[in-house]
Amino acid sequence: MQNVVLKGYKDGYEITLNAEADFKVILTDLTKLFAELQLEKEKVEAKSISFDISTGTRLLDAEQKQQVEKIVSRYPLFSIHRFTSSVMQIQDALDMIESRTVHLNASTIRNGQVENVKGDVLFVGELHQGGILRASGNVFTFGKNEGIIHAGYPNDAEAIIVGNIHATQQVRIADVVDILEEDQLEDSSETVVFVNDLHVLEYTEREKVKMIRPKLFTRMGGY
Asked: Which residues form the Septum site-determining protein MinC N-terminal domain (predicted)?
């Protein structure tokens, strides 16, 4: 197998690096490839080209990526669009799994405290006034809610909040905030909060989730 393989596609170019090859050899072959490409470009009309660098089952560290970028930077008409790989760091994998997990949380969150959750949270604890429950995903709450509930932190506007939030001070989804007035909402565990097409928080009933967030409904298996 060649150490460096160039392929052209309808939407661009990809250079595949042999995951089994010595990295110094790959750098040498990359240098030869771009020198040849430069000669070809000089014979035709100059047009910039961006490459995807695919490393297969090899993960390049920051220094190795810089070495590849240094080679490409010698040629102004060439650039790297992105590095891709078929594997990921263990920590990245764990973070991805965690972000897709529904976490059961029974904490008591007092005034001035912030409870951060990565992924979705099923909250059955107590959220006091001045406390903040913050999740990167959706918030499903069956607990006491008198503080601030923040779903989709920091920028997931597709997240929702489900549960009895009539006594909550504020609800937030991504960067959208609503300060709740007394008696603004019914005392009901069926309330759903979501960001509508106008990027405004809207309130509906739980039975409408399938319509407003069909992907979430499918992932969760329905209610």
From this structure: 4-83
Between CA 17 and CA 56 the distance in angstroms is 7
**Could you give the maximum distance between any two Cα atoms of the chain, in Å?**
74
pLDDT tens string 183-192:
899 999 999 9
For residue 147 the two structure tokens come to 């503080």
Query: CA-CA distance, 220 to 223, in Å (whole number)?
Result: 8
The SS3 call for residue 83 is strand
State the Cα torsion 82-87-92-96 to the nearest 10°: 100
CB distance 134 to 143 below 8 Å:
no
pLDDT of 22-47, one tens digit each?
999 999 999 999 998 888 877 766 67
CATH class of 93-220: mainly beta
For CA atoms 213, 219, 221, 223, give the dihedral sign.
negative
Write the DSSP assignment of 142-201 as a string of letters: -SEE-SEEEESTTT-TT--EEE--TT-SEEEETTEEEEPPTTSS-S-TTEEEEE-TTS-E
Q: Peptide bond before 76: cis, by omega within 30 degrees of 0?
A: no
Tell me how many degrees the CA angle 118-136-186 measures, rounded to the nearest 5: 120
pTM: 0.58
Q: What share of the chain is helix, strand, coil (3-state, %, to 5)?
A: 25, 35, 40
- 23: tokens are 């990295």
Instruction: Please give the Cα distance from 71 to 27 (Å, whole number).
Output: 8
